[in-house]
Amino acid sequence: MTFGEQPAYLRVAGDLRQKIVDGSLPPHTRLPSQARIRKEYGVSDTVALEARKVLMAEGLVEGRSGSGTYVRERLEPRRIARSGFRAPAGASTAFRQEQAAEGAQGSWDANSAQEPAPDAIAERLGVAAGERLMRTRYVFRESGRPMMLSTSWEPLSLTGRTPVMLPEEGPLGGCGVVERMAAIETVVDNVVEEVGARPGLAEELVLLGGVPGHVVIVISRTYYASQRAVETADLVVPADRYRLAYHLPVR
């Protein structure tokens, strides 16, 4: 292979990718078999297999047990608007600051339980490892389809024995962190978010309806009141179905 030349498996993957993009291999079409790829491109079994792995890792094809590998339907990514941390006056959205764009109908399921703080979460909240937290897991849905997971943690040293101890129950159940904390005279004045990406965990992809190996966007978010962390959460979004759109005011 000369300098700058692509490896054979990438050239094969690139040609098959182009056929998927231009519609020569439309959605739900069976991908050429390994033997056919080997014959058509004059490559080895290893090269043919690696090319198929590339397309699968990119989410362009999916394996179906006992049937083969098929071109996946390509969905136009939808926007998740993150424009602030207070809902607009009169607005009603199931996503609060995790709004789906274009007026999507949102809903969510949640369950809460007390648990000791894992080391990484304790560090984010500035508490001792093992301190009791309220952990709440969410599955957010857009028009009935899972779109995002969220796991949040709040120190019970702050919310314990108050009306907002359970985020989704009581008089402020379902309200955002800012409103709930205000009810116990804690003013949230700062939010930090870190955005990254990684392969989705098996349990995440089962809930989100993804394919093993698919990439997810992870937002690690922490709310602060006078430099004290009052809530931290990890939000997980399928990278092939959604993009994050931030609208930040200029002050």
UniProtKB/TrEMBL annotation:
Q: Per the record, a Pfam family?
A: UTRA
- Which keywords appear in this protein's UniProt record, sorted alphabetically? DNA-binding, Transcription, Transcription regulation
Is Transmembrane a UniProt keyword of this protein?
no
Domain HTH gntR-type, chain residue ranges per copy: 6-74
> Region (Disordered) spans which residues?
86-113
Q: Does the keyword Oxidoreductase apply?
A: no
Under InterPro entries, the record lists: Bact_HTH_transcr_reg, Chorismate_lyase_/UTRA_dom_sf, Tscrpt_reg_HTH_GntR, UTRA, WH-like_DNA-bd_sf, WH_DNA-bd_sf
Protein name per its UniProtKB record: GntR family transcriptional regulator
Q: Species name for this entry?
A: Streptomyces evansiae
